[in-house]
Prior knowledge:
With 223 residues, the protein is an alpha/beta fold. 40% of the residues lie in helices and 14% in strands. The protein has helices spanning 9-16, 38-47, 74-88, 98-106, 122-132, 147-154, 168-177, 190-194, 209-222, and strands spanning 25-28, 50-52, 63-65, 110-115, 139-141, 162-165, 182-186, 204-206. The strands form two sheets. The chain has a six-stranded parallel beta sheet with strand order 5-4-1-6-7-8, sandwiched between helices. It is globular, with a radius of gyration of 17 Å. The mean pLDDT is 93. Magnesium ion (MG) binds at residues 29, 31-33, 165-167. This is Hydrolase of the HAD superfamily.
Amino acid sequence: MPEPQTASRHVLDQIAALPASDRPLVICDVDEVILHLISHLERYLTANDLIFLRHSYKFHGNIARRGDETPLSNDDVRRHLVRFFDEESHRQEMVEGADTGLARISENHEVLLLTNLPGAHNKPIRETLLAGFGITYPVLTNSGPKGGAVAALSAGRPAPVVFIDDSPTNHTSVHASLPSATLIQFIADDRFRANVTPEPHIDLLTGDWDETASFIATTLQEA
Length: 223
Ligand SMILES: [Mg+2]
């Protein structure tokens, strides 16, 4: 189990700028949860003569040139991800039901979006895209595992804080930093979700916004 993380100055400054609130909190990721990522990334990879080696939930070590099984180096993968977000992030499509699911959740919870989006210039682009779908909750940008940021955001909030994200790494990090958090692993892509064995700390594995909103309503009633 990893050590609890502390939040970066970059994240703490964004948290300090939020209006004070003691409402129950739902912290939600964006890529592959609210906006499709895998389908766009596959299109980008195809256009660049690249492929996923497996429908397994990681990028590093899992992307290669078509016809060559040798994975690209981590540096090359990082470079492609930065280029991908620069080229594609303004036109990512919404995951079905994300707008209505979040609206339902926001009736009883404050919703904050916590996204690892490369490139500070991409944040306003993402906010504009989300607003076009009627999704206007505050967007906070983070880099690296999210445990520190989630623990800092949870201060003064009733437990449990709910955390929604596709990435197993982020869930492990949040579990280490805030063990009381309710963890929802949301993966929109059916093939990638089917290849995930959820860790014991995951409370719900899903790709469905109706199920997510109902699960949170039930959790809140029991809390
Ligand atoms: Mg994500």
